[in-house]
Amino acid sequence: MGTRKKVHAFVRVKPTDDFAHEMIRYGDDNKTIDIHLKKDIRRGVVNNQQTDWSFKLDGVLHDASQDLVYEKVAKDVVSQALDGYNGNLIN
């Protein structure tokens, strides 16, 4: 990540046995995530409910360990903070 002055966005999907495969898809580039919800049929024939979202990120960390998350996301920010620079990590 270096000392570039821009916001970086990552998504970490924690390991789980009950993952929503039918709702969440990952891009082959490990930088996109697509969310799809089924239409709520209770809303009737005219239903303008949004059902699809696509997000472009700096990284998608699927089933990533805490060590890998630190390495990819926090290591540079922590190092720069120790050198006196400002940095934020939001969980």
TrEMBL record:
<dbReference type="InterPro" id="IPR001752">
    <property type="entry name" value="Kinesin_motor_dom"/>
</dbReference>
<keyword id="KW-0067">ATP-binding</keyword>
<dbReference type="GO" id="GO:0007018">
    <property type="term" value="P:microtubule-based movement"/>
</dbReference>
<dbReference type="InterPro" id="IPR027417">
    <property type="entry name" value="P-loop_NTPase"/>
</dbReference>
<dbReference type="GO" id="GO:0008017">
    <property type="term" value="F:microtubule binding"/>
</dbReference>
<protein>
    <submittedName>
        <fullName>Kinesin family member 9</fullName>
    </submittedName>
</protein>
<feature type="domain" description="Kinesin motor">
    <location>
        <begin position="6"/>
        <end position="91"/>
    </location>
</feature>
<comment type="similarity">
    <text>Belongs to the TRAFAC class myosin-kinesin ATPase superfamily. Kinesin family.</text>
</comment>
<dbReference type="GO" id="GO:0003777">
    <property type="term" value="F:microtubule motor activity"/>
</dbReference>
<dbReference type="InterPro" id="IPR036961">
    <property type="entry name" value="Kinesin_motor_dom_sf"/>
</dbReference>
<dbReference type="GO" id="GO:0005524">
    <property type="term" value="F:ATP binding"/>
</dbReference>
<keyword id="KW-0547">Nucleotide-binding</keyword>
